[in-house]
Design brief:
This protein has 343 residues and is α/β, with parallel strands linked by helices. The chain has two domains: 6-74 and 257-342, no CATH class; 76-253, Rossmann fold, CATH 3.40.50. It has helices at 11-21, 26-34, 45-49, 53-68, 76-92, 112-130, 151-162, 172-185, 204-219, 239-248, 261-272, 283-286, 288-295, 299-316, 323-327, 333-341, and strands spanning 101-106, 140-144, 190-194, 223-229, 249-253. A five-stranded parallel sheet has the order 2-3-4-1-5. Helix 5 (76-92) packs across helix 6. The longest helix is centred in the middle third of the chain and has 19 residues, at 112-130. The structure holds adenosine-5'-diphosphate and magnesium ion (MG). Adenosine-5'-diphosphate (ADP) binds next to helix 6 and helix 14. Residues 112-113, 194 line the site of magnesium ion.
Length: 343
């Protein structure tokens, strides 16, 4: 048997990094909406052996790519966010002022970004279905708050998504006016602001960023959705400024998964996407408690473990995932710490 080493070249890391980065421009966002990759066909051992070497390599390549790609599972966080978000969009449609919003908040790696981008995706696809002939619509805007952001930087992020070239002499009001103008014309109905924890209301810059977001939310007739790490424990929802947000926003908390039915079904769903020739069905569901202990119930760590082990299985020719091959995939730092603590 060939030994299973670490994933060469950070194949999975690269794919995951790419996936997150391109969403903050309109082109990248639109590409995300049209992505519907079809899974390659799984050949039997005999079929595979009969292929010429060049075609065997293509087969491997397609399956490596399949496992590197992220399959989004309709977890309760995703479903809850999509349902609550859609409800607010409807309720806000006729609101003249004081539109309501959503805050998705929890520890890092609990699926907040995935949940709000799925909401965005569903909103935009619905908008297209309702207005099949309309052009120039930008139903969803997605921005992330940069670390140590200033008000001008956050306004520039909005402009960047929309493809507005921010000219040097422009002051922040110029940028804001351009953004509000385009969003209004393009009927933007949903504004997603991610990485909100990068704002600290205890600094002057931080309060100005919060004020800019508030101003955007008053001027753009859209539903605002925020996501960030443990927002309810930061300064963002306290004080006079915070109270205004807290009073108008519904909080959706995200958590690591407890060991239970949803975890088990998550493992089963991920197992069902495997494309390995010698994989024995039920192997992973049989290891669901081990996987829970190892990952601390973090969906990102779980997905990374399973997909990493699948890639190893193809590269090594083993074509199956075992407890040992799962153990050989290095975990991210948080999950390693959790696993060590529970031993
Ligand atoms: N619904 C989901 N289906 C599949 N994988 C998910 C899902 N939600 C999260 N993940 C995995 O968890 C990782 C972290 O999710 P992300 O949304 O970036 O977390 P957060 O924004 O809370 O830090 C993702 O890269 C992905 O691998
Ligand atoms: Mg995130």
């Amino acid at each position: 048997m060939t030994s299973v080493g670490p994933i060469p070249g950070g194949f999975l890391e690269d794919a995951e990094e790419e996936a997150g980065q391109h969403l903050t421009t309109l082109d990248g966002w639109r590409q995300f909406l049209t992505e519907a990759p079809s899974a390659p066909r799984l050949r039997s051992e005999g079929e595979f052996a009969a292929l010429p070497v060049a075609e065997q390599e293509l087969d491997d390549e397609a399956r490596l790519d399949h496992h590197a790609r992220l399959l989004v599972v309709a977890t309760s966080t995703v479903r809850h966010t999509v349902t609550s978000g859609r409800r607010l969009v409807l309720l806000n449609r006729h609101a003249v002022s004081a539109r309501r919003g959503l805050i998705v908040s929890g520890p890092a790696g609990t699926g907040k970004t995935i949940a709000i981008t799925q909401l965005g995706r569903s909103h935009e696809l619905l908008d297209r279905a309702r207005q099949p002939h309309a052009t120039g619509r930008i139903p969803v805007l997605y921005v992330t708050v940069p670390p140590a952001a200033t008000a001008r930087m956050i306004a520039a992020e909005f402009a960047r998504f929309l493809g507005i070239p921010v000219r040097r002499p422009w002051n922040i009001t110029d940028i804001i006016e351009a953004v509000v103008g385009i969003c209004t014309d393009a009927r933007t109905g949903l504004v997603l602001v991610d990485e909100l924890h990068n704002i600290s209301l205890t600094t002057r810059h931080g309060s100005e960023v919060a004020d800019t977001l508030k101003y955007f939310s008053e001027r753009i007739p859209a539903t605002f959705v925020y996501a960030g790490i443990n927002i309810e424990r930061t300064t963002l929802l306290s004080g006079t400024r915070g109270a205004q947000i807290a009073g108008r926003f519904t909080l959706i908390p995200t958590h690591p998964f407890p060991y239970g039915p949803e975890w088990k079904s998550l493992v089963a769903t991920l197992e069902s996407t495997l494309m390995l020739r010698r994989q024995i069905p039920g192997t992973l569901t049989g290891l669901d408690r081990y996987l829970h202990e190892r990952t601390g119930g973090m969906i990102g760590a779980l997905s990374h473990q399973i997909r990493g082990a699948a890639i190893d299985a193809i590269l090594s020719g083993n074509e199956q995932i075992t407890r040992e091959s799962l153990a050989a995939v290095p975990l991210d730092y948080t999950a390693e710490k959790t696993a060590a603590a529970s031993q």
